[in-house]
Amino acid sequence: MPELPEVEALAHHLREHAVYRPVARVDLASMSALKTVDPPVSALPGRVVTGASRFGKFLSVDFADRPGEGALHLVTHLSRAGWLRWHATAGATPPKPGRGPLQLRVHLDAVGGPGFDLTEAGTQKRLAVYLVGDPREVPGIARLGPDALELTRDGLDALLDGDGRRLKTLVTDQATVAGIGNAYSDEILHTAQLSPYATASRLVTAQRDALFEALHGVLADAVTRSVGQGAAELKGEKRSGLRVHARTGLPCPVCGDTVREVSFAERSFQYCPTCQTGGKPLADRRLSRLVR
């Protein structure tokens, strides 16, 4: 899933390549991806791209107003398997709905010219697209907590105090802090040497300091590595910087212990027992392991 650093890099890429270009045509290949109907996507052709921005893990492409109509924002949440792909050229024939990973295509300058595609792999289609006058009209954006990179040390205390949830749950809750997903939460907790199962409100001052420094350090480093990369290279760049996430069974690069995994529902997280849990493996409550 694209998280704060990748979405920030995609916004940067669009600011460098799409700004000042007019929309020639928009192809909607999946009606289910579009979550708004007014204004319609037919309102975009003729408008000029003015910018791109990030709200947590949401990406917003901004378009200029025109006489009698305000500015518009094409907002997307890429979900688990979505992506934005920039193209120098594209087919001029409109895509057939429901065929392949393409969800939406924006032609810039001219039909068949440069632009970007929103795509989604797999069969579970969760990518969401909204066309709105204000990004805050998108329900998911309206519910976001403070952005992870803008969170202050005092702000972190306010989030932790009185919260009895597990640390892993808290830092991935977008209504609590925006932008952190499964992968970077694993990396942040490993860097801070904190158990994913630690109770948020019980962290002492030194642990809170470590969490704050790790949160900013891991995300800022990932943004630095990601911004400037082409959209096609971002996934590989993300994987290259991970120390524990998606590295089950491999040695921890800090202590050499074996990276472990806990699975739940459709997801899993990784951690190092030596670095994070005093050497004790965490319970893995996968239903497939239950003996009835």
Automatic annotation (TrEMBL):
Tagged with keyword DNA repair: yes
Cofactor(s) recorded in Swiss-Prot or TrEMBL: Zn(2+)
UniProt keyword annotations, A-Z: DNA damage, DNA repair, DNA-binding, Glycosidase, Hydrolase, Lyase, Metal-binding, Multifunctional enzyme, Zinc, Zinc-finger
SUPFAM superfamilies for the chain: Glucocorticoid receptor-like (DNA-binding domain), N-terminal domain of MutM-like DNA repair proteins, S13-like H2TH domain
PANTHER family: FORMAMIDOPYRIMIDINE-DNA GLYCOSYLASE (PTHR22993:SF9)
Similarity-based family: Belongs to the FPG family.
Pfam families on file: Fapy_DNA_glyco (PF01149), H2TH (PF06831), zf-FPG_IleRS (PF06827)
Stored CDD domains: BaFpgNei_N_1
The EC number(s) this enzyme carries: 3.2.2.23, 4.2.99.18
Species annotation: Pseudonocardia parietis
Protein name, as recorded: Formamidopyrimidine-DNA glycosylase
The Formamidopyrimidine-DNA glycosylase catalytic domain, residue ranges: 2-127
Residues in FPG-type domain copies: 243-277
Domain of life assignment: Bacteria
GO molecular function, one term: class I DNA-(apurinic or apyrimidinic site) endonuclease activity
Catalytic activity: Hydrolysis of DNA containing ring-opened 7-methylguanine residues, releasing 2,6-diamino-4-hydroxy-5-(N-methyl)formamidopyrimidine; 2'-deoxyribonucleotide-(2'-deoxyribose 5'-phosphate)-2'-deoxyribonucleotide-DNA = a 3'-end 2'-deoxyribonucleotide-(2,3-dehydro-2,3-deoxyribose 5'-phosphate)-DNA + a 5'-end 5'-phospho-2'-deoxyribonucleoside-DNA + H(+)
Alphabetical list of Gene3D superfamilies matching this protein: 1.10.8.50, MutM-like, N-terminal
